Amino acid sequence: PSRSFHGNNRLLTSQIISYYESINQCKKELPEYFNFASDVLDEWARLEKDGRKPTNPAFWWVNDEGEEVKWSFEELGSLSRKAANVLSGACGLQRGDRVIAVLPRVPEWWLLNVACMRAGIVLIPGTSQLTAKDISYRLQASKAKCIITSDTMAPAVESVLPGSQFLKSKLLVGQGSRDGWLNFKELL
User: Fold this and answer.
1) How far is CA 159 from CA 73, 132, 153, 183, in A?
2) Tens digit of pLDDT for each residue in 93-152?
3) Is pTM beyond 0.85 here?
């Protein structure tokens, strides 16, 4: 049995299974360092650019109103590099630093996930249903140096900031601005 994905090469189930079996039996060499953003995303973008892979969306988001955001592999790669530069530049983060993202599932949520992978920054995802107490606990337990949130969650975050001794930067994803916060869209 085989399956086709968007007209690409047919992938045989038995080939996929044998590939994973070879990894489990230590017959396949695994890279010492693996980075999804550079080893997979950038490679797919290169294959698309060289015409060796048909162009398919790497990311396709649709909200309740029918608005769409669609990025190719090349666009997602480029945007994630810019977002990684925002995190390491404006936010002052380094490889191994922790970031808490308290965002609804907007396109920036996925973009920041890939950017953190690319930069070696540890992303701690949080749902927008977190309370101020939940956020405070996560900030202290994780020793996060940055928090990323939306306009609507910013007041809950600000209410617990006096007790967050490790926090260096606050990044806002949204249209508005707040005193003491960096605006992600402007920096991107």
Assistant:
1) 39, 7, 10, 19
2) 999 999 999 999 899 999 999 999 999 999 999 998 999 999 999 999 999 999 999 999
3) no
Tokens found for residue 123: 């992303």
Domain boundaries, the chain: 36-183
Backbone angles phi, psi at 44, to 5 degrees: -65, -40
Token representation of residue 118: 């690319």
Task: For domain 36-183, say whether CATH 3.40.1550.10 is its number.
Answer: no
Within 8 A by CB and 6+ apart from 186, the residues are: none
What angle (nearest 5°) sits at the alpha carbon of residue 109, between those of residues 107 and 111? 70
12 pLDDT above the threshold of 60: no
Burial of 80 (0-12, 13-18, 19+ CB in 10 A): buried
Under the phi-then-psi rule, with left for phi > 0, alpha for psi from -120 to 50, and beta for the rest, what region is 6? left
Reduce the DSSP state of residue 157 to 3 states and report it: helix
Q: Please give the C-alpha separations between residue 153 and each of 38, 98, 129, 160, 168, in angstroms, as whole numbers.
A: 32, 19, 9, 12, 18
